[in-house]
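Appendix B.2, paired examples.
Example (i):
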Amino acid sequence: MASVFPACSGSASLFQGRNFFSFATKGSSLHLKRSLSAKCVASLRTEISVPPAVDTFWQWLKEEGVVSSKTPVKPGVVPEGLGLVALKDISRNDVVLQVPKRLWINPDAVAASEIGKVCSGLKPWLAVALFLVRERSRDDSLWKHYFSILPKETDSTIYWSEEELSELKGTQLLNSTLSVKEYVKSEFRRLEEEIILPNTKLFPSPITIDDFFWAFGILRSRAFSRLRNQNLVVIPLADLINHSARVTTEDHAYEIKGAAGLFSWDYLFSLRSPLSLKAGDQVYIQYDLNKSNAELALDYGFIEPNADRNAYTLTLQISESDPFFGDKLDIAESNGFGETAYFDIFYNRPLPPGLLPYLRLVALGGTDAFLLESIFRNSIWGHLELPVSRDNEELICRVIRETCKTALAGYHTTIEEDQKLKEAKLDSRLAIAVGIREGEKQLLQQIDEIFKEKEFELAQLEYYQERRLKDLGLCGESGDILGDLGKFF
């Protein structure tokens, strides 16, 4: 079994094989001692409605010509911490803010700065992260008032203590978090050795691993990526907007060319409200419709109560010790997969396309190995879309069900215990942990049930041999082999 599915352990996929930087915006998680209603900003508009740093930030935006008395939104204290609140009624698709490119923080800003040359060979996110850390330490930074309102950390799992992470025992999110943290640490060590220490004149202030994790978290949670020619950009003010599951479209941000001042033109980030709002309502957007709750927890530090956001990743691999490794790898690559394949299974959704064919390919062997011959190379994936043989189908069912059983045994609580915990008032991080592990266990039970049902159907399935004989007219509709040919089967 292990030799057939060596990576089918239910563990989280390594981030290098995934779309690691799937950027979206995130509102501030600035935590205040006293929570005020969102409406206080619209109705009172007093200095006490937001911290002084936010007022200073707003004044800076005024001086830069970004906002004015006509701007329909303003930062306010909201349940999430800090967000954008409507100052008047706003219709759906109304522009709520525009921010000129000269205030964006992106690779172009890095290239134009003093550290541009030494950062030119870096991955874009590393260059921008280093730029963020350096700018935050400078008293004369253009963005100093923006940095003053940014949180020191969010509830993203990358900031959790060991005790808090222990609540994620058995989850894929724990493995993903630890992998990401180790990756960030290794990248920082390399940056420190190759860029920071050899250029002390450019980096006079000490840069710590905590500084770098702060910058990483800012990028992970606040950067936009769906703009024209912009794969990584942080936009002051726009990044204060929070997420809502009520918003079901991602078409809210645009890059346009327009007036950026009294006598200047520039590219502008334009944000439209996806919902109609009343004065005092908070402005929301959708961060990413396709992200799972685990991804939301890792990127932003929250999860949705919607069970449809729960997902579990099956990681499958063609073993190098497989005698048909080369043939199987060639077939996998010809159909858009590789030696290792990741399949995200979401709650209450069908199995993802390609999962069953890939499973059957990995398990293919014995008398079924003839399908790996070159004569079938152009048609084999079509054959794998359907059951190949009873032995092959039994094997994949047994392995997947054993995988689910093993993974379920790795959690330190049951679903019932998690549901009981959710009845109490939990702190934000424990609530995330309970929600994630309950969701993963529900997914594992769902996957197990799917393959359990397949096991019950094994005797009724039509396999490759029967399909082929029917195509040749040698098998009846009931599956009986015609004539004397039956004695050979």
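Example (ii):
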Amino acid sequence: MDAANPQQMLLKRPINVKAVVTPRWKDEVQQQLQAQINAVDQQLQQLEKQGQRAIAEIQKQSIQPPGPETRQQIESIQLQVNEKKSELLEQKNQSLQNLQQVQLLEMNQEVSQFQLEGIFSVQPGDNLIAKLQVEILLRDGIVEEIRGEI
């Protein structure tokens, strides 16, 4: 509470941040998504190599022909690799879908970017709902407009 006005208090509110679709914005978002896709591809390659190395190491240390315990270890590794591979492929698929959606956006369209938290004061007589409905509009990273009651 404010000492000058005991009927006033500070609250937190979510602030939606939107961006205007511009050629520069589209390029930057597409580059970020492509970088994510490339990173997932690298993780998939590393995962495959690590799985093969682990299996080869187990096979090298086991007696020939491999017993049930060795086969179980190999199956366990393959299962772990496949689970992680599925997660990574899901991430890649999501990034590819996002990339496709970005390509379909029209210029000057507004799209949600992220959400911030802001602090605001409220006192008797204020419209709380109106004070909670604040958003910031960016054009190429620069604040173009602040909408709502500050």
